[in-house]
Design a protein that fits this description.
The strands form two sheets. The chain has a five-stranded mixed beta sheet, with no helix packed on it. A two-stranded antiparallel sheet has the order 4-7. The chain has a domain of 77 residues. Strand 1 and strand 2 form a beta hairpin. The chain is an alpha+beta fold and 118 residues long.
């Protein structure tokens, strides 16, 4: 599931179906879907169709023709494998490793004319 202009997008086979709130009361459920970002999901709901709006002389922004699920009635299930939890110690070691490699060596600082920090 990915973020899209109208809400969330369930992508498949180079196509996509929007998943958004039709009424203002579904906004909290939209926020609950943040945890599925980038995951493989299953959605059970009625597939709806938003037709292309009729041409008008007025200039206004309207969404294009699309298919969508109403988030108020949708049941979303996560199909992604569970992510491995990293311990706090392993995260600290990863940070220390990155910091160690990011700092230039004393020889490199001397060749650039930089004095070591004391």
């Amino acid at each position: 599931m990915n973020s899209a202009k109208l809400g969330w997008m369930v992508a498949f086979k180079r196509w996509g179906i929007y998943l958004y709130s039709v009424k203002d009361s579904g906004i909290s459920k939209m926020n609950d879907l943040n945890r599925f970002y980038g995951h493989t999901i299953r959605v059970r709901a009625t597939l709806r169709y938003f037709p292309e709006p009729p041409k008008s002389d007025r200039i206004e922004a309207v969404p294009p023709e699309h298919f969508y699920f109403d988030v108020a009635e949708a049941v979303v299930t996560d199909l992604s494998p569970p992510r491995r939890q990293r311990s706090r110690r392993s995260r600290q070691n990863a940070l220390l490793t990155v910091r160690t490699y990011d700092r230039p060596t004393t020889a490199a600082r001397k060749s650039r004319g930089v004095r070591p920090v004391v």
